[in-house]
Amino acid sequence: MAQILVRGLQPQVVARLKARASAHRRSLESEVRLILESAAAFTAEEARRVVAGWQRQLAGRKLSDSCELLREDRRR
């Protein structure tokens, strides 16, 4: 397996990664590996195809205005 060394990370970034790993009950290494694998899952072209598929699937549907729903919820 390949290894990557990342230098110069801000302490706040490392702290957030540790908190995220803890919340998911994973080691820091496992959490970072999962983030990297997820980020590398699609090429830009593959991502465009996925988006185009969703756009075709949702075309013509009337979607609710989420801003108005949020405003209503905040008024409660």
Explain what the structure shows.
By secondary structure, this protein is an all-alpha fold. The protein has a domain at about 10-60. About 65% of the residues lie in helices and about 0% in strands. The chain contains four helices and no strands. It has helices spanning about 10-25, 30-40, 45-60, 65-75. The longest helix has 15 residues, at about 45-60. The protein is flat, with a radius of gyration of 19 Å.
Write the layout of secondary structure elements.
Elements: H1 11-23, H2 28-39, H3 44-58, H4 66-75
Helix pairs in contact: 1-2
**How many beta-strand elements?**
0
Radius of gyration: 19 Å
Q: What level of helicity do the residues show?
A: 55-70%
Which structural category fits the helices and strands?
mainly alpha
N- to C-terminal distance: 53 Å
Mean pLDDT comes to: 93
> Which blocks of ≥5 consecutive residues have pLDDT under 50?
none
Shape: flat
Beta-strand percentage range? under 5%
Compressed to H and E, one letter per element, the order equals HHHH
Number of helices: 4
The major pleated sheet works out as:
none
Sum up the structure in keywords:
4 helices; flat
Brief overview, please?
The chain has four helices and no strands. It has helices at residues 11-23, 28-39, 44-58, 66-75. 66% of the residues lie in helices and 0% in strands.
